[in-house]
Amino acid sequence: MTLTQKDFVLSCLSAYGNQAFAVDESLSVYFRHKRLAKGVTYLESGQRWQSFTVIREGSFRLYYLDSRGREHSKGFFGAEQIMAPCAPAAIKQPANFFIEALTAVSCYQADYAKVRRLLESSQWGLSVLMSLLERVLDEKVQREYAWLNLDAEARYVRFLKDHPVLSSQLPLYLIANYLGMTDVTLSRIRKKLALTSA
């Protein structure tokens, strides 16, 4: 059974919120359905990130461009995830990164400030915001640990374990970029792992 827009949005928000508190169903009316084609830029560097997005289908990539124009993947968001600015700098200042649709995307989008105000007005909403922040922080801590303590092969194995769905959907060159290695290095690692498991 396919969930209605309201049920889908509330289901995703509820996955982040504390189940001991009542869900604020009024939130769903602020979301509008949006479809994006593969490759569409959702947010340009220099723009303000002012949307709160619940992803129904597809995936997004956040990435930086360095001074030489090379892309560096910052993170990925997929189906049933919430994509929204969390850090004060991301909310108050223009973004210094891009967000692109890696695949065709179906999502529900609302004005970030309105959603934030509503979430801050209830215990359940505050628990959603806290969970979003905790997940972002946890991901950053885990990624920093991997960069500082794991070799390329261990980083790839960990990525497969932590992101089984995304790892099957992403092009290998993007996985390599995200993990800080060349696609040639990743290809060698994949061959080695295939031989080991055979």
TrEMBL record:
PROSITE patterns linked to this entry: CNMP_BINDING_3 (PS50042)
Which residues belong to any copy of the Cyclic nucleotide-binding domain? 23-119
Which InterPro entries would you find in this protein's record?
A: cNMP-bd_dom, cNMP-bd_dom_sf, RmlC-like_jellyroll
**Would you tell me the protein name for this molecule?**
Crp/Fnr family transcriptional regulator
| High-level lineage | Bacteria, Pseudomonadati, Pseudomonadota, Gammaproteobacteria, Alteromonadales
